[in-house]
Amino acid sequence: MRRTATPDPPVREADLLAELSAVYREAEELFHGWTCQASTECCRFGITGREPYVTSIELAAVRRAIASRGGPRALQGIVRAGGTGAPEPPASGEDPSRRRALPQAAERRCPMLTDAGRCAIYAARPLGCRTFFCDRASAGSPVRHHDVTRLVRKVQEVATRHESGGDLGRPLTRALAEANPGAAGGPSRARARRGR
């Protein structure tokens, strides 16, 4: 009797998001004791020259967080209104008006950054936003590059099971634009392609 291989059952996105959350918890443990002055500099991609790359499963988590806030249009209102909480006072001696070194368009500000300087989807932020790469971050216990790479690989492995090619990271703003072409405030696919 000839046996035929049975394909693996499809993995539900919710299960993969639970695996992603477990990796995020590992990142929190790894970076325990690290703090940030909430300068939001890392959320201003034009200033740092860096932007988090997201896999398909991370983008799914971000999209779910946006949907839970009422969708892209509602999120834009939240961003403009400064989020749900009051802004934290600036660090002692910091002049909030001096935060921006570039005109807003040149800052290439993360679309999730509220005018109050908070992340509108903080709990669902991608791994790249959890690694304290900013020079202003205050270090806790030392974190080895190898440990961060291990977390990246875990996220990629989950994303591989999410969709074909899902492990290939894309810049956050491009991934969001491609996921919501023509969304209010987001670049169209054509503009996103020109910026590549």
Any chance you could write out the topology, listing elements then pairs?
Layout: H1 13-30, H2 45-48, E1 53-54, H3 56-68, H4 72-81, H5 104-107, H6 145-162, E2 170-171, H7 172-179, H8 189-194
Antiparallel strand pairs: 1-2
Helix pairs in contact: 1-3, 1-6
Structure overview:
- The structure is a single chain.
- A two-stranded antiparallel sheet has the order 1-2.
- The relative contact order is 0.21.
- The longest helix is centred in the first third of the chain and has 18 residues.
- The protein is mainly α and 196 residues long.
- It is 41% helix and 2% strand.
* Annotation field: number of helices: 8
Distance between the termini: 54 Å
How many strands, which pairing sense, and closed or not: the largest β-sheet?
2 strands, antiparallel
Structural class: mainly alpha
Q: Roughly what percent helix?
A: 40-55%
Rg calculated over all Cα atoms: 18 Å
- Average the pLDDT over all residues and give the rounded result: 78
Q: Can you list the strand order of the major beta sheet?
A: 1-2
**What is the H-and-E element order?**
HHEHHHHEHH
> Which term fits the overall shape?
globular
Number of strand elements: 2
Task: Please describe the structure with a list of short key phrases separated by commas or semicolons.
mainly alpha; disordered C terminus; 196 residues; globular; single chain; two-stranded antiparallel sheet
